[in-house]
């Protein structure tokens, strides 16, 4: 978090930073939509940079945008420094780490898992739900049993060193209060479009830190944390899941784009809708990321601090989003 805040202080709204070792340029103007060449990968937060790199690498290898968005967030699920995604994430109030994930393609196919324990890659399990079952969502022990039947390794249930240290500190007071822009709600959401206009998206998280046991946020809920439609575009969300679920945030953005709004306009309207339906908004952060079939990009958050990564075959840039406040 200290590194993120340093970055924010040094950045100018709308600026872009190219990842070392990746050639190419990224142009941005505050007066017009962000335009991206195809194929294009977008993902939330700083950890989107390595996730994008993994996604682009997979896209080059297989040519599948679905493979790309799965591989991209798998990279984050393995990042031991990330305490909001994967089994290394911060636990619930009982000291247990539970995971949520969803995946979707532009033809309407989708799958998700929620309240999953001991599975390293919930995004891959969500893809199994989509491709190998007649269902959209499988949760809890049922999801774990599906993982076992599909040959997923079942990991030892123990907190990562960083998560254990944080949990022990939390237990001193055992108080729960979401705070904006900290690693207790920094999902990674990823959306992408290939050179032929095919779209896909993925979303994965360990959820709110110190949540009630059994709590599920927006990430595995199709239409809330993620929505993709080849005819229109795609959107994903990050932040306090309860507020995003209440407005069906990602679906709302895609439908607004269907009605003619640009991705930026749609993200801004979704945030305004969310703000109007939320209490104590000063303590709530949520952000949206969107792309339409022309490759236009939109991003907007309640408070400053939300950023996203934009990757192409030649560049990978971290960009600050505009915000409501």
Polypeptide structure, described:
The chain is an alpha+beta fold. It has a single domain, classed as Glutamine Phosphoribosylpyrophosphate, subunit 1, domain 1, CATH 3.60.20.30. The protein contains nine helices and 15 strands. It has a nine-stranded mixed β-sheet. Strands 2, 9, 10, 11, 12 and 15 form a six-stranded mixed β-sheet that branches. A hairpin with a 5-residue loop joins strand 7 and strand 8 (199-205). Helix 2 (48-62) runs antiparallel to helix 3 (65-77), helix 3 (65-77) packs antiparallel against helix 4 (122-132) and helix 8 crosses helix 9 (263-276). The longest helix has 15 residues, at 48-62. The two termini are 21 Å apart.
What number of domains? 1
CATH topology: Glutamine Phosphoribosylpyrophosphate, subunit 1, domain 1
The DSSP helix count reads 9
Major sheet strand order: 1-14-13-3-7-8-4-5-6
Structural class by SSE content: alpha+beta
- Secondary-structure element order, as H and E? HEEEHHEEHEHHEEEEHHHEEEEE
**Taking Cα atoms only, what radius of gyration do you get, to the nearest Å?**
18 Å
Oligomeric state of this protein:
single chain
Please report which band the strand proportion falls in: under 5%, 5-15%, 15-25%, 25-35%, 35-45% or over 45%: 15-25%
Name given to the CATH homologous superfamily: (Glycosyl)asparaginase
Determine the fraction of residues in helical runs and give it as a percent range: 25-40%
Give the uncertain stretches in residue-range form: 1-32
Tell me the CATH architecture.
Answer: 4-Layer Sandwich
Total DSSP E strands: 15
Please give the alpha-carbon distance between the first and last residues: 21 Å
CA-based shape: globular
CATH top level label: Alpha Beta
Largest sheet: number of strands, sense, barrel closure:
9 strands, mixed
Average predicted local confidence, pLDDT: 88
């Amino acid at each position: 978090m200290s590194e993120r805040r340093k970055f924010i202080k040094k950045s100018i709204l709308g600026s872009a930073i190219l990842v070392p070792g990746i050639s190419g340029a990224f142009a941005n103007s505050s007066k017009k939509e962000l335009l991206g060449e195809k194929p294009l990968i977008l993902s939330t937060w700083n950890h989107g940079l390595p996730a994008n790199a993994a996604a682009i690498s997979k896209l080059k290898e297989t040519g599948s945008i679905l493979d790309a968005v799965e591989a991209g967030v798998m990279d984050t699920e393995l990042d031991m420094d990330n305490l909001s995604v994967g089994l290394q994430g911060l636990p619930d109030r009982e000291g247990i780490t539970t995971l949520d994930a969803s995946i979707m393609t532009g033809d309407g196919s989708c799958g998700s898992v929620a309240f999953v324990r001991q599975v390293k890659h919930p995004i891959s399990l969500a893809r199994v739900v989509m491709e190998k079952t007649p269902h959209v969502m499988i949760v809890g022990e049922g999801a774990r049993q599906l993982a076992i039947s599909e040959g997923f390794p079942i990991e030892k249930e123990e907190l990562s060193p960083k998560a254990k240290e944080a949990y022990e500190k939390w237990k001193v007071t055992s108080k729960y209060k979401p705070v904006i822009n900290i690693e207790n709600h920094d999902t990674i959401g990823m959306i992408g479009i290939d050179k032929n206009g095919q779209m896909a998206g993925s979303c994965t998280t360990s959820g709110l830190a110190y949540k009630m046991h059994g709590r599920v946020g927006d990430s595995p809920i199709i239409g809330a944390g993620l929505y993709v439609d080849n005819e229109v575009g795609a959107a994903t969300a990050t932040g306090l899941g309860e507020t995003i679920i209440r407005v069906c945030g990602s679906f709302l953005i895609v439908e607004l784009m269907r009605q003619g709004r640009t991705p930026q306009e749609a993200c801004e309207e979704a945030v305004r809708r969310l703000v109007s339906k939320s209490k104590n908004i000063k303590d709530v952060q949520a952000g949206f990321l969107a792309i339409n079939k022309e490759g236009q990009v939109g991003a907007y958050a309640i408070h400053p601090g939300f950023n996203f990564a934009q990757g192409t075959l030649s560049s990978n840039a971290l960009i600050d989003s505009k915000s409501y406040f």
